[in-house]
Amino acid sequence: MFKEIAGQLTEAQKEIIWQGSQMAFLQMLRTELKAELKKKKKVQTALSKLSIPDFDPSLYEGHGLKTFFYGVFKEQKNESEKSRQNMLRNTLIARANEKALHVFGDDIARLESKVKPAKEIRDLAKLIKKIKTATQKRYDYLEVATMLQFIDQTAELEIARVLLDESLAQGTELRKRLGAVSRALKSEQNWGSWELFFSKKVDVENIPPSGVDQAFEEILEVDVLVRKFQFYVKDYFNNRDMTLHTEYLVSFVDEFVHSMLIDWMFESKIKATFSRISQLLNSVDMLLYGLNTLSVRNRNELALSQTERDARIARIGEFIKEQEAKK
Fold it and tell me: What's the pTM value of the predicted model, to 2 decimals?
């Protein structure tokens, strides 16, 4: 009987903890969506105020980034013009913004259908408390209180395991995407080189997609993944070094776009952009290492907690039999 009660209480407690974690994730998604909507308005306003002579944005739709950069600047001497720099920066940020709005919107719709009303969770918590109180009153035995403590602990550890697994999955996917970005950037040649193309009289509008184009397509995915990963890991690490690695994930796409622009203007191939990706890869690797360590510890603690809980259940069962035999 107690084994059945323990199982029901464990599942109910897990549901409360799980729902709490999902509500927190949903709130994060809503916050990010709100921020992206605000950014969209800001970027659109900025683009509407930009006027560049001899530049028609519609002529560059569907073309690669090199064509777009050449089209905006027209000549190397124009690279110092803030209006042209801002045109490039805001256009690229707008692309990332559009992707983020789509992903966060879909995630919110999916999660809203799974998160239960707060009242339902409060009622479940009251029911659990009522069952625990009634059980302790009915059986005046120390092991009952201890068993209930291990039920709570086991539920917390089981949900922690699920969340750690999800954190590792998010981090692994993020690392995979960043690896793709890194490989694409390594293949890039002559980013920002005016001499190479114009000395050969290349038709700017027919420049084929390059490594930067491949990298930027991945960045649109990374921009969203990096924020989800940051949410998952933020509460796990308290030491200074790991917190610093977490902070490296902030404002990623804006810095990536800025690095691309700097590399173009200084003809440094893709040095600054690649450096930013390498830094982020290092931080993700360190966070994944930390998560794996926590995961191993969690599984060990969970196995021990389950063993202790089951031992208490068995002792209570023996106690009840002894009491009934005395009647």
Answer: 0.87
